[in-house]
User: What shape does this take?
Amino acid sequence: MLRLLLLVVFLSITVAANGPVYVVLWFDTEDYIEPASDDAALRLATDLRKLGVKATFKVVGEKARVLEKRGRQDVIEALRWHEIGYHTNFHSVPPTPAVYLKTMDYLTGADEFIRREMAGFNDVSRIFGVTPSCYGQPGSSWAPQTNRALRQLGVPMYLDEGSHVGVENHQPFWYGGLFYVFDMGPYVMRAALDKDDLDASQREFDSTAAKLSSQGGGVISIYYHPCEFATTEFWDGVNFSRGANPDASEWRRPKRRTPEDSERCYGVLNSYVKHALSNPAVRFVTGRQLMSKYQSQIPGAVNRQAIADHMAARQTFLVLNNTSLSAADMLLVLLGQEPRFVEGPVSEGKTTYKAGTIDRRRFEQAKSDTVSYIKTHTRLPATVWIGSETLSLEDFAATLAADRSSGDVSVRKGNPELRRHVTMEPQKTFGWVIHPEGFQAPELLDMARLQAWTLKPAVLK
Assistant: This one.
């Protein structure tokens, strides 16, 4: 008994010396064709509640409506005990978000996303009685315009997985004004339901959790779909593959698991979660709870000289004394503005200014005009006017940061390193089976690079 008590004390001291590992467990709750997926959602929600674990269920609008039509108040109530996110109105029915947003600019695309998604968002909110805490795209159908739309809908968090945008440490970040759990790399984990490797999965979880804890803490993302526990194939893959759009009367149900096989799958997840719970460093959290563990995206007091030195050399985020700053944050500081969120530019800027220096008066006018633009539009300009000529935003930022004198201002070429945090893979990144054959969206990635002015790592409190 004494040895057990000493072990508990030792583990407690070890956890205190290191950091907590937050596990966000989420389910894309989407199959509205196969009724057995309703029962799967109920079973998962119930089993996890018995374990005292709150998950995040991202619900498709049509799924919520179908639950209501089928009279599955039991499922609705069970999911409501957890946290509710939003997962598009119809998920895989064409056109999916990346397909219809590919040809739209940033502002028009955000409006179009709201037009298409408002009905589903409102139905999920009404049926579950809460405003969804987060959003995630169907498949790999990600697009940067959704950030602006989600902020307008009051959704503060992006919870999903993909490789479109991210930071080096594969941990949460701020992007487009949203808290992102995305591109988690080695920190997105799950125990496979159809492989006999639970022990190996648990060892991998332990190793990953220990690494994060030793680094001061961090996040592990675990995700499933309720339909995986009920069927052996995905409902959308058998109906909407490669952009197919059959009439609802022609929709086919996916192949069912046997009751025994479903039980085995529930057992795998239960064992995996119980094992994670046995780790004293681990805390299961919902999306909203996870956000509360991180500092606000609005920075506090900062060292202006350190910011100027950084932005003169490169335009990308900076973590300074445990404060995370995006390139947009730092530009506001250099312009003498109060910290707040502003969007990145909506188009590519170009430098037409040819001279090597700028008259001080004209440069001060350019700064004043830039401040006015930002205040009016709540976003950064693509270009800054020097009389009838222009500096690109990155050239202006570098020039402003390097300005140390009271005389003429030397023009400095920008180094927008922030762009490298967006993938260069326009086809592979969007390679979802539901997208049309060969679909690629370099336009969305170009737009994402412009919005990378808002990108920065999230910092634990």
Q: What stands out?
A: The first helix runs from residue 2 to 17. The longest strand covers residues 21-29. Residues 304-421 form one domain.
